[in-house]
Amino acid sequence: MESWLVVVFFAVLTGLYSIFYLLSSSYKKGLHHRLLPPGPLGLPLLGHLHLLGELPHRNLQRLAKKYGPIMTLRLGLIPTMVVSSPEWAELFLKTHDMVFASRPKSQAAEYMSYGQKNLVFSQYGSYWRNIRKLCTLELLSNSKIELFKSMRSEELSNFIELIKNASESRSIIDITAKVESLLEDMTYRMVFGFKDDKFNIKSCLQEVVMLTGTFNVSDYIPSLKALDLQGLGRRMKACSKVLDKFLEAIIDEHVRDAKELHGQHRDFIDVLLSLMESNNTRELYLDRDNIKAIMIDMLAAAMDTSSTAIEWVIAELLKHPHVMKLVQEELENIVGLDRMVDETDLTKLSYLKMVIMETMRIHPVAPLLIPHESTEDVTINGYFIPKKSRVIINAWAIGRDPNVWSSNAEEFYPERFIDTNIDVQGRDYQFLPFGSGRRKCPGIQLGMTVVQLVVAQLLHCFNLELPEGMSPDDLDMNEKFGLTLPRSNHLRAVPTYRLRMNL
Ligand code: HEM
Fold it and tell me: Where does heme bind (predicted)?
């Protein structure tokens, strides 16, 4: 058990046990005649919080092996359902999708989304529906993605040139840092029109993703919020202050420019601002806080997810050089060595797509999706799921289930997707890299385009090898848990340029 948990446990147990007892007995009184899904015995007060550990997706998988694919935990005072099979995922995300389409309140959403005014954490209802429609139409639709194609191509060329220069001296490249910075530049240009050279908020956005994914005791035992035992509240406040300053400056700049643009929209922020000023359609009310919350969503969602996915793909390819070779052969056949990859090539790169899907199967970017919350009592297959239960879909465990993926489920084997219709759209409940149902990711098209494009260009332009003396078995594949699951250490490799054309 982690040391802070021991401190929490003993410090508050005596004082709060009586309160807990009253709460838990009234909770049980309401539920005793109804059958909750099975689960382990919990501790007073903490419930099962102590079982989550540093890598909750792995610990929840272990528990599901014992208690089954639908399991009840009590995290502090919150009833929590953990789903770990495709069948149960379908029941929650399709059959009863509407009941589970909300998000729980959390300290992170409070501090970093201006009180759930964003899309990712907003509760199910008309505000969520309207901003989801707005973001899809104005930023994530096919036509908007197409609009930014030349920007992506320009940024990618700069990225390739940087790596080519380094490759001339056979230097080791920090792939993680390079990919993150590429994604950062692409995202800023897409969301607010230019790159951020002044504020350097990348680490802050990464902190947002990490903090929002951490199981925060304050969310589960609200009486402990003031103690901020994990120090998360303090970190959230500091982070939100930095982001707020940055976002205010961006909005001010757009407001100043708007006077000269006479209603013309250059980017997403212009659209949001004109909606705010026309204040506001009856359907959707936006003020500065709403705009800032939505901006944080789009920046964090676009940067962190895609770079995490790209790094895992490259890591798996470094671990499996024969697969890297097959990807490069496909690129050679489709693109040839006399030009760079163009986005229009992507639909023809079917092996590459399988490699990316296979990576997302064993390293889903969001291992537990984003927590859902039920909005009413519901009984499913005889199990009672109380209103306001937190729902965790363990996409990581589902992607590694040998009952679904056969005994080689833990192996990296892209060929398993040959002759299957499985794709990333959320219709196949054994494979949920972008979730499914009402809350599924609205950025699938953009995310997949960027991941495929960056991986294709990188492997087309360069042979990548591990630093001298390191064998594929030495490459560490450790994870760092947050809302996303990035590698815990930066990925490094030695590139050699392989095209016949000069850049
Ligand atoms: C490889 C890239 C990406 C992956 C793997 C990914 C994955 C996911 C997952 C698993 C969810 C949660 C679904 C659920 O809770 O059931 C999600 C939600 C979301 N994603 Fe993505 N995503 C990616 C890229 C993007 C991009 C590029 C954007 C937009 C710029 C985006 C915006 C969002 C938003 C706004 C939500 C919340 C939707 C809602 O609550 O209604 N994502 N994503």
Answer: 441
Q: What per-residue confidence (pLDDT) applies to 29?
A: 47
Q: Is 461 within any annotated ligand binding site?
A: no
Q: Separation of 170 CA from ligand 1 center, angstroms? A: 37
Q: Supply the DSSP string of 107-121, one letter for each residue.
A: HHHHHHTTTT-SSTT
Nearest to 437 by CA among 101, 125, 133: 101
Percentage of the chain exceeding pLDDT 90:
82
Model pLDDT, residue 274: 85
Distance of alpha carbon 65 from alpha carbon 48, whole angstroms: 16
Q: How many CB atoms lie within 10 A of CB 304?
A: 26
Ligand 1 centroid – CA 431 distance (Å): 15
Amino acid at 155: E
Quote the CA–CA distance of 358 and 316 in Å, as a whole number. 10
pTM for this predicted structure: 0.93
Query: Could you tell me the two tokens for 235?
Result: 């970190």
Of the candidates 291, 208, 280, which has an alpha carbon nearest to the alpha carbon of residue 242?
208
CB distance 365 to ligand 1 below 6 Å: yes
Closest CA to 56 of 370, 479, 481: 481
Low-confidence ranges of the chain (pLDDT < 70): 1-33, 198-199, 263, 279-282
Q: How far is CA 256 from CA 62, 172, 196, 243, 259, in A?
A: 55, 44, 18, 20, 6
| Protein residue with its CA nearest to atom 21 in ligand 1 | 441
Q: Which pLDDT value is given to residue 14?
A: 39
| Closest CA to ligand 1's atom 35 | 120
Among the atoms of ligand 1, which is closest to the Cα of residue 448? Answer: 1
pLDDT at 266: 79
Dump pLDDT digits (tens) for 29-55. 455 569 999 999 999 999 999 999 999
- The span from the CA of 100 to the CA of 123, in Å, is 11
Whether omega before 280 lies within 30 degrees of 0, making that bond cis, reads yes
Q: Provide CB contacts within 8 A for 186, sequence distance 6+.
A: 148, 151, 152, 155, 302, 450
Interface ipTM: 0.99
The whole-angstrom separation of Cα 300 and Cα 289 is 16
Identify whether the C-beta of residue 324 lies closer than 8 Å to the C-beta of residue 493.
Answer: no
Q: Which residue has the tokens 């895992």?
A: 312
Q: Judging by DSSP bridges, how do beta strands 383-385 and 378-380 pair with one another?
A: antiparallel
